[in-house]
Amino acid sequence: MSPPRGKIRIIGGQWRSRLLTFPERPDLRPTANRIRETVFNWLGQDLSDLTCLDLFAGSGALGFEAASRGAASVVMVDIDARNVQALRENKEKLQAGHVELVTVDAFKFLNSDTRTFDVIFLDPPYRTELTDQIMPLLPPHLKQNGLVYAEANRDWVMDQQWRIFRSAKAGTVHYKLMEYVNHG
Q1: Listed residue (75, 100, 79) closest to 27, CA to CA
Q2: What is the DSSP letter of 4?
Q3: What is the mean pLDDT of residues 81-90?
Q4: What is the average per-residue pLDDT within 41-52?
Q5: Are 145 and 178 a contacting pair, CB within 8 Å?
Q6: How far is CA 72 from CA 25, 96, 113, in A?
Q7: How far is 105 from 1, CA to CA, in rounded Å?
Q8: How far apart are CA 169 and CA 85, in angstroms?
Q9: Is the pLDDT of residue 184 over 60?
Q10: Which residues 6+ apart lie within 8 Å of 173 measured at CB?
Q11: Per-residue DSSP letter, 171
């Protein structure tokens, strides 16, 4: 018997209204529609030619949304094999050739991969509270003027190396769009 599956709808772009399925797991909670709508309003609806990294991809809601809105490439990283299998099924269903799936721990990915990205989506499982540990590892992976979208179940204070463009709260979810400010 297969595990129960959750569903979430892509809200914009070429795959608008298409359903993504994902395993129902305690730590897997896709970014809500209204938050994704806000984030992609902040980023601009058209992500053509941008490269994106979706760390802790989970359901893939953020990464597939970016791909649907024209991102040139999206790398989705998740360590959970069941999550990655669901991401693979969604990728095939959407024929998303510009989406790359990587099954590895986010820290190992950041320490071994040398690519840079225009947008990094950071939405780790809330119980892990990894945002503060991951943020210092992101600057080498950002292109000039690259942005980081981060989400957590609590507000957090960024150090002076980060400039917050936008921030909001929906229910218990705190989310921010930030740019790394190079002081060197």
Answers
A1: 79
A2: P
A3: 94
A4: 92
A5: no
A6: 30, 11, 18
A7: 28
A8: 31
A9: no
A10: 32, 35, 151, 152, 153
A11: T
pLDDT in tens, 95-137: 999 999 999 999 999 999 999 999 999 988 766 677 788 999 9
Say which DSSP state 153 is in. Answer: S
Counts for the chain of helices (H) and strands (E), in that order: 5, 9
**pLDDT for residue 62:** 95
Query: Taking a C-beta distance cutoff of 8 angstroms, is the pair 71, 46 a contact?
Result: no
Tell me how far apart the alpha carbons of residues 44 and 23 are, in angstroms, rounded to a whole number: 30
More confident residue, 175 or 159: 175
Helix boundaries (H) for 31-176: 33-43, 61-68, 81-94, 106-112, 131-134
**pLDDT for the residue 183:** 47
Amino acid letter, 73: S
- CA distance linking residue 22 with residue 28, whole number of Å: 9
How far apart, in whole angstroms, are the C-alpha atoms of residue 153 and residue 163? Answer: 20
